[in-house]
Specification:
By secondary structure, the chain is of the alpha+beta class. About 30% of the residues lie in helices and about 30% in strands.
Length: about 400
Amino acid sequence: MTLAYFDCFSGISGDMTLGALVHLGVPLSRLQSSIAELPLEGFALQAHTVRRNGIEAIRVEVQTAPTQEHRTFAQIKTLIEKSPLPETVKTTSLAIFERLAEAEGKVHGCAKESVHFHEVGGLDAIVDIVGACLGLAHLGVETIIASPLPMGGGFVACAHGLLPVPAPAVVELLKGAPVYGGNLQEELVTPTGAAILAGTGAEFKAMPPLRIRRTGYGAGARERSGPPNLLRILIGDPLTEPDVAPEKLVLVESCIDDMNPEIFSYIMETLFEDGALDVYWVPVQMKKNRPGTLVNVLCAPEHREAVVRRILTETTSLGVRFHDVRRTALVREIVEVASEYGKVQVKKVFGIDGGVRLVPEYEVCRGIARERNLPLHQVYAAILRSLPPHA
């Protein structure tokens, strides 16, 4: 399944979406000719390479006549339904326009069929939306996930005068989606951009585990000194549950009932030095009802010999068992976060559902507790308080 992740760190608009899709390899000529079959006249698509904060991106502009017809939703619906566009492109385009018409109709107090799309550029909106659907279909995108959206601030001029940012239609379109304000006093999410995400059924969450194939950057019209005015789209294959860090491992076992218990601690340390991934003891009742300890060691196949040798030379065991096992592990990595103890390492864990969580590392907390003569639980609590709410 092909997944597109919309990384909207600087918002989203229709032209930014087209730019990112062209950067991903969608031919501009195909978009131009396919949209013209609606039929639509009086427009042209132009694309050129730009740089935003040193990042190469594609800027797509829709050239239209100074004056253009502002169609209603009913007219646009008829136009698309009677076109020779692929059925999937028709369906998705109509779903986007319907969501946009419903939002605009609610804001302006009119039925969606009679909504005039002058607020989103008329012909521009048709080209942006149909072009986005054509591009997604060309790339074979089946699932869209988007990051939380920065909404910006200030005011934007429209046919009705100044409107607050985010525009009222954007607020309607993004009901239920995770959003945040930010410091930029400008429009970051346009109605067309919000409608593309809402109408395609995009799910809003952190980037899920995926195998990235391609990345495209689409540039907006503004150039600024702050965050680059770009939309990033990543195309890849989602990592399903069986694909998350699959591993072939070996489980080594031995039962021990006649060894000095003090030696177990030393054995555990040395087994980890030998490459063990996990070591644990299980109390068991052995033959003649003697209490004993089941030694379990999980390791990679290449470390099996060292683990077996360690058990047979350092313990009283007369033999070991081992067999192959499979383990599915969540993807994780070590990252640094700021805390009251300075920068500390924590584990970043990526869940199967796309969620991310940060977990304090025991050895790090232990080291701080020893160094500062603090209770271990106090160190854990302090690091947990310093973790960002959205990893």
